Amino acid sequence: MDYYNILGVPKEADEEQIKQAYRRKAKKYHPDLNPDNPEAEAKFKDIVEAYEILSNAERRKEYDLKQEKESNRDRTTYQNSAKDRDNDFAPHMDFGAFTKDMEKYFGFSFTAGASPQGQAYAQGGQNVGGSKKNPLDVTDMFEAFMKIK
Asked: 27 burial class (0-12, 13-18, 19+ CB within 10 angstroms)?
């Protein structure tokens, strides 16, 4: 729980600001002024708890240290998880096996200049060795559209 947020004061607030904020909020959410309103009662309890901590110099200092540690821990955890995500980007993945599987399923090589049978493609996707033309080669369509040929 963020006691400063509950009271609506900045972390640099002095005792007088904390007291004024407590009185204002306690009056607004006091159970006697909000009968049969469980939300107001819960907020009032949080306000009292926040005031008890922040109005006592020692308890406030302990609370601030605890919040700072949690903030640093959360930041470190986030940074470490980001590093882990970066390291998990499949640096160990064997794309060679993937390429061979794709050649097997599609019947042609995705790598430039070679078919599954090792026959080279000529410029423009034309097959030199007589096997299938790469169906993903859009060179002819591009040249026709741009009126290059």
From this structure: exposed
